[in-house]
Amino acid sequence: MASRYHEVYQGWKNDPLGFWKTAASEIDWDSTSDTVFDPDQGQYGRWFPDWECNTCYNCLDRHVERGRPGQPALIYDSPITGRTATYTYAELLEEVEALACVLSDRGLQKGDRAIIYMPMIPQAVMAMLACARLGIVHSVVFGGFAANELATRIDDATPKAIIAASCGIEPGRVIAYKPLIDNAIELASHSPECCLIYQRDEKPADMVSGRDFDLGALQAQAVAEGRRIAPVPVKASDPLYILYTSGTTGQPKGVVRDNGGHMVALKWSMSNLYDIQPGEVFWAASDVGWVVGHSYICYAPLLHGCTTIVFEGKPVGTPDAGTFWRVISDHNVVSLFTAPTAFRAIRKEDPEGKLIKKYDLSQFRSLFLAGERADPETVNWAIDQLQVPVIDHWWQTETGWCIVGNPMGLGKLPVKPGSPTVPMPGYDVQVLDDAGHPLGPNTLGNIVVKLPMPPGCLPTLWNADQRFFDAYLAEFPGYYKTADAGVIDDDGYLSIMARTDDIINVAGHRLSTGGMEEVLATHADVAECAVIGIADKLKGQLPCGFVVLKAGVDRDHAVIEKELIGLVREKIGPVAAFKIAITVERLPKTRSGKILRGTMRQIADGESYKMPATIDDPAILDEITDALKTHGISS
Ligand code: COA
Ligand code: AMP
């Protein structure tokens, strides 16, 4: 079948407002108006500014009212605990309403913020939906972040409540969340009024009297009493959530997502991009702490009347590299969305795909990859093993949904390995030089999106309009700066080559090297430091820190390096995967004092490099090469 993509994309270009107005008809609105987009509101305009809606109603109630009450809405599959559970749409709505009652009883209401700090358990999704039901703005914090990161988010979002579980479970260890929360509250200037803690058998938490409440017990009581609570209408442009993501400093950026545009974009994507029918089972093997988890574990599958899967496990080791195939087969998953690193991990354990053959994957239709570059070797292995289309697509926390992809629902376009294919309707993607001039095909430059951004994308940063403007809109007036560099070929296919800032991508997780440098610099023995991302076969990139010690420090370097590794783990969290710290005499710099991080990365990755013309002392590069070799990183 010929793809309808070009016709649909051109249709959007000819009439963008008409395009999104039609897409908006898939959503149930409390009220609408003639204004689809107001260019004068906000930083670059606002979508559906005066329309009113409720995201939870669209995810749950309308499916219960219209034919899906008995269909599974959420399947919990937890190989790490051995538990499974299924909630129909009617049951999930009942639980969400009960949780919303608990929030309301604690005085939370429309416009308040709540931080959700939970592992991959159904209560995480229930908490998100309960907030959405009452117009409470949620901010989910990934469990792998340390207390310090949680404290930063508490101070920025100033939540009235923290909704958490007593623990998370990683292979081989149970992580008590409560001490992290208590520590974070102590570190933060803002104090939430209450903590609602879901007690897990693996490690129940000690509760602070008067502040901490047993979420599970209160929710169960509300269910037993048959308590219900109506969805609260909010403006389409009101915030649904804040999701913090790495910026160029240790201060994360609070990406704001609105209600209306978000629903319109996600609903459109389910049929047109992912080619999923309501009633089917869609599985995003990510975490609710990341944007993929927000959009494609929680909101999009439910908006579309699908069954979503909450998977508490890892692609390998829980118990083996066949877990993904077992889940697909057990629950009739038609489409899986994950990060390439998960497939690299599976391939490493089961290179011949022996475990795949143990399971019936006859319902499985497609694999979608995002979060980092999909290397053609991994993609080809997945195609060979699974015999289904493997679709790379590119997006960011900021956009909330795909920028460039291969729209399976419009008819698959030919795949070019290494390219996530073409822009989705809504995105006018261009490549500019550093001065902002358009570049021709096949020329590497800054990838930008012509304003306005489509529905679903961030309208601003939480309480930081100026930072939003400075970070995204200032450098290329009239465009959103993606901070990715790439090329567009003669057929309009985009390839992403690198970030233009200090963000690195570790196992599909986005991390700021600047943030890690800020932590290293706090060590009493460190005079200066530089953190770079070096290539890693499994995780894509790994952080590697170089430190110069203060004059007169004569402690064992190995001890200091261990302390530095511990410091990053303590301040940022295990998710930073910071395991390489190298002491050097000097850092390579330009004559004006700029650290040559790019050249250091090229040396570490064994790439050929040109001696920077402005280098202060070329001999330092040999010192870096030797230091890397001593630490087992040979170039
Ligand atoms: N809570 C607490 N700690 C966590 C955590 C969580 N939710 N998630 C990860 N961590 C810890 C890990 O236990 C690990 O700790 P360690 O240093 O003590 O081993 C550390 O953070 C690094 O985690 P990760 O980078 O995920 O490595 P891993 O070795 O545990 O797993 C993969 C490797 C490839 C299996 C895993 O990264 C993966 O499944 N990646 C998919 C990524 C993904 O879904 N991205 C979302 C975008 S689609
Ligand atoms: P995050 O905000 O965590 O989703 O990370 C977004 C960044 O991850 C992007 O800016 C890219 O650098 C990278 N990324 C995401 N998807 C892809 C992809 N399909 N190909 C290449 N890089 C990607």
From TrEMBL:
One Pfam family of this chain: ACAS_N
Domain AMP-binding enzyme C-terminal, first and last residues per copy: 516-594
Domain AMP-dependent synthetase/ligase: 66-451
Domain Acetyl-coenzyme A synthetase N-terminal residue range list: 5-59
CDD domains registered for this protein in UniProt: PrpE
Domain of life: Bacteria
Gene3D superfamilies: 3.30.300.30, N-terminal domain of ligase-like
Family named by the database record: Belongs to the ATP-dependent AMP-binding enzyme family.
PANTHER family per record: ACYL-COA SYNTHETASE (PTHR43347), ACYL-COA SYNTHETASE SHORT-CHAIN FAMILY MEMBER 3, MITOCHONDRIAL (PTHR43347:SF3)
UniProt-recorded name of the protein: Propionyl-CoA synthetase
Biological source species: Roseibium porphyridii
Lineage: Bacteria, Pseudomonadati, Pseudomonadota, Alphaproteobacteria, Hyphomicrobiales
